[in-house]
Amino acid sequence: MDQNRWNAVDSFLTDTLIPPGQRIDHALEANACAGLPAIDVAPNQGKLLHLLARIQGARRILEIGTLGGYSTIWLARALPPDGQLITLELNPTHAAVASSNIQRAGLSSIVDIRVGPALDSLATLSAQQARPFDLIFLDADKPNNPPYLEWAIKLSRPGTLIIADNVVRDGGIVDPESTDPAILGTRTFLERLGQHPQLDATAIQTVGLKGYDGFALAVVKA
Length: 222
Fold this sequence. Notes:
This protein is α/β, with parallel strands linked by helices.
């Protein structure tokens, strides 16, 4: 199996399982036109996030790492009309593109984009005594995943679902010689995920349009 086959399978799954009316290709096109890096989740992964949010019955979602808002839209579509999604983005240019995409999707009333370093935004949310989130999606700079996890736990409740993207890194997480900060941060994140007494966690490897990678999932315990 090679990348061409993985791409073909992902395309088949998307064409077969995601009707054209559910797709948000306009967001990907806008991101490409704006020169954003092509690191959004794949369409079938976006639909997976959407379904997980619905299964969770989420009313409040926190996303760390907005980029152009593609995953934001998938998650926000799972919320009820009175739900809320807060998404954190460092880059003002990315946030502006995301805002346009979210507005075009008709979701501006329930999505709050906060611009600045995520660790600062998370500290602000905590200081504001933000109500706990039902689902938290981590998809920002990987070296900071360990502190993002600690904030996610503080901003959660028993039963909150925490999802992290890009946790396999082409298998780099098992390379003991790696000095890549993203790999080191991801490995530390996974170790803390498995050792934390408040979490019940697992991770899966994935292949597809985004190459060889994976998701981690954890539920906050009572």
